[in-house]
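Notebook entry, structure prediction.
Reason for the run: the old model in the group folder had no record of what sequence produced it. Starting over properly, with the input documented here first.
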Amino acid sequence: MGDTPDTGTQREFAFEWADFERLRALSQAHTGIVVPDAKFEMFYARLAKRLRALGLSSFREYADYLDSHKETEFSKFINALTTNLTSFFREPHHFAYLRDEIVPAARAAGQSRLRVWSAGCSTGEEPWSIAITLAEANMPFELLATDIDSDVLDTARQGIYPLERLDGVDERIRKRWFLRGKGRQAGKARVRAALRERVMFQQLNLVRPFRHTEPFDVIFCRNVVIYFDKPTKMALIQRFAESLQPEGYLVMGHSESLHGLSNQFRPVARTLYQKQEH
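New structure, fully documented this time:
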C-alpha cells in the first residue's frame, strides 16, 4: 500500500484509512472505477460537501448513512466522485474522421442514417459535437447519450453553457447551432432546439449489463475505460462489440487503447477502431 496518507485530526471531518477503504470498495463495486491509494485526499475533498449537507461529523458516519440510505444518497455519492472534464470538439481528429470517412462510407453503402452512442457523455459537449458534425454533413442520425451521473445529464440535456466554453468553436458553427442568452441568461449560450430534439439522454451504468434494441454504427466512449480494472474493461469492450453493427466504429480517448483487451477491432485512426468479423 505504500505510505498511508496522514489521517490526522487537522480536518473539518474525521477521515480514517478504514473509511476510505470502505467507501472506495462501494464505489468500485457500483461503477467499476478503480480508486488508487493516491486518491485519498481527492476522496475527502469531493465528499466533504455531502457531509456538510447532511450535518455529519465523520466519514464513518457518512459510510453508515450511505449503507442505510442507498436509494436517496448513492447517486449523490457517485456524482461527487466522478470527474467531468470535457469540451466541445475535444480530440478534433475524431470528428474529422466521422465527417470525412464514416459519413461518406455510410452514404456509399446506401445507409439513410447513422446510429451513434455517446457512452459517458458527461455534461454534453461530446454528443452536441457529434450532432453538429452530422448535421453539418447533412447526415440523418439517431444519437443516444448516456452517463452514470444524473447531475451532468441534466446539464447535457438542457444544452446551456457559459459562453467561454465555446471559445474554441468556429464562429459560423456558434451562430448556426447556438442561441446567445439575453437578460438573466446573458453570458450563456444554448444549443438550438432543432438539434436538442434529435438527441436522447439516458442514465446508464456501463458496468451493469445493458442491451439496446438496435445496433449502433458508431460508439464514442472516450476517457471512461481508463478508470476501470482490466476485467471490467474487457467485459465492457465485449458488450460494445455486441452493440455495434458489423464494421461499426469504436472511438476511444487519447490515453486509451484496446491493446490486450480485445481482438474484435482493428485500428483505423488514432484511438479509433473498426469492428472486424472473424
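Summary: The chain has ten helices and ten strands.
The old model has been moved to the deprecated folder.
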